[in-house]
């Protein structure tokens, strides 16, 4: 996107995850890659992370046209995307990998400048929890990416959809898709007029619910605070969290909302561990830092084998996100004769 010729004036129809690369563009971001099977390295700047251990995609190649192949590492001991029990890795690592890989390609293959603001409009992830085992964590993950619905603005990128299929040792682990929008710094300043100073104002940190109730082991990773009735919580915003807020932001990032949906689904269903096989999220508005956000749930019995939890976030009377998470019920132990 060429900021000198940018003509953006409208707010994206849906927005949640807007972040900015603060470092100068790398040699990879400086030009779109030609058709090549030479592997390129994923940097922290490309993935929009400040710590190398938070970068999950490691390398990628262009296969043909808008098709790419990545490798990724999903560590067993990540401080946030860690084990959900003594057997399974966190399914949320799939969504975070999808998000990072989408931004990598936007920069390195589709010409989005380093100062682009990204908007994650929707995300859907299907996971096979039985294939997401801690015992296999040392095995690299390969995933193929197809970019579609590519819209350009001038020489830059306006938006695109990425669809991904993840395999480990040849076994299908997950697949997912997400739609990403791009906004130039100048257009973003117009969209956020009067709100950009929010990054400089402290956000009161609410007391969180019990970590076990939210499906977490550490209190600092809880993103929900008690609500006024069962099945309802307040969003707990910790702008000092090193993974959820790796850099200053003037609103709540989309992955914080996705995590809030997962924690709310865990608390509402009472399932421990809550291992979702399907997760969807739609982000409809910016979630502001200084206005209370109400997280509401509805538990649906899809059948004897599955539970689906619908989650919504509401702020100032408007929905900011909706999500749906489906989890298999644990098998009942056989009765004693």
Keywords:
alpha+beta, 337 residues, 14% helix, 13 strands, 13-stranded antiparallel beta sheet, single chain
How would you portray this structure in words?
The structure is a single chain. Strand 5 (141-153) and strand 6 (156-168) form a beta hairpin. The protein is built from 5 helices and 13 strands. The relative contact order is 0.15. By secondary structure, it is of the alpha+beta class. A 13-stranded antiparallel beta sheet has the order 1-2-3-5-6-7-4-10-13-12-11-9-8. It has helices at 44-47, 92-108, 185-191, 211-214, 254-269, and strands at residues 40-41, 57-64, 67-72, 117-127, 141-153, 156-168, 171-183, 224-226, 232-235, 276-283, 293-301, 306-315, 318-328. It is 14% helix and 33% strand. It is globular, with a radius of gyration of 20 Å. Mean pLDDT is 87; it is low at 1-35.
In short:
The protein has 337 residues and is an alpha+beta fold. The protein has helices at 44-47, 92-108, 185-191, 211-214, 254-269; strands at 40-41, 57-64, 67-72, 117-127, 141-153, 156-168, 171-183, 224-226, 232-235, 276-283, 293-301, 306-315, 318-328. The chain is built from five helices and 13 strands.
């Amino acid at each position: 996107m060429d900021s000198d010729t940018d003509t953006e004036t409208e707010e994206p129809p849906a927005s949640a995850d807007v972040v900015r690369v603060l470092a100068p563009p790398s040699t990879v971001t400086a030009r779109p890659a030609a058709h090549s099977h030479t592997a390129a390295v994923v940097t922290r700047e490309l993935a929009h992370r400040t710590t190398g251990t938070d970068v999950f995609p490691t390398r990628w190649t262009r296969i043909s046209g808008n098709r790419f192949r990545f490798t990724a590492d999903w560590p067993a001991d990540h401080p946030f995307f860690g084990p959900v029990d003594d057997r399974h890795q966190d399914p949320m690592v799939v969504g975070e990998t999808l998000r990072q890989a989408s931004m990598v390609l936007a920069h390195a293959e589709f010409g989005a400048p380093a100062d682009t603001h990204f908007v994650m409009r929707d995300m859907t992830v299907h996971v096979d929890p039985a294939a997401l085992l801690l015992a296999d964590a040392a095995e690299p993950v390969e995933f193929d990416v197809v970019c579609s619905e590519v819209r350009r603005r001038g020489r830059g990128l306006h938006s695109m959809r990425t669809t991904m299929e993840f395999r480990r040792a040849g076994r299908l682990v997950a697949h997912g898709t997400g739609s990403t929008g791009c906004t130039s710094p100048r257009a973003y300043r117009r969209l956020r007029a009067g709100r950009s100073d929010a990054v400089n104002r402290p956000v009161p940190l609410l007391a969180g619910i019990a970590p076990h109730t939210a499906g977490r082991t550490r209190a600092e990773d809880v993103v929900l605070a008690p609500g006024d009735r069962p099945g309802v919580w307040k969003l707990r915003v910790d702008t000092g969290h090193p993974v959820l807020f790796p850099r200053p932001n003037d609103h709540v990032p989309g992955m914080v909302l996705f995590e809030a949906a997962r924690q709310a689904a865990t608390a509402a269903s009472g399932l421990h561990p809550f291992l979702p096989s399907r997760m969807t999220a739609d982000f409809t508005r910016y979630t502001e830092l200084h206005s209370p956000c109400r997280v509401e749930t509805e538990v649906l019995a899809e059948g004897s084998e599955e539970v689906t939890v619908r989650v919504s976030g509401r702020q100032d009377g408007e929905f900011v996100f909706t999500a749906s998470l489906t989890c298999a019920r644990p098998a009942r132990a056989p009765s004693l004769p």
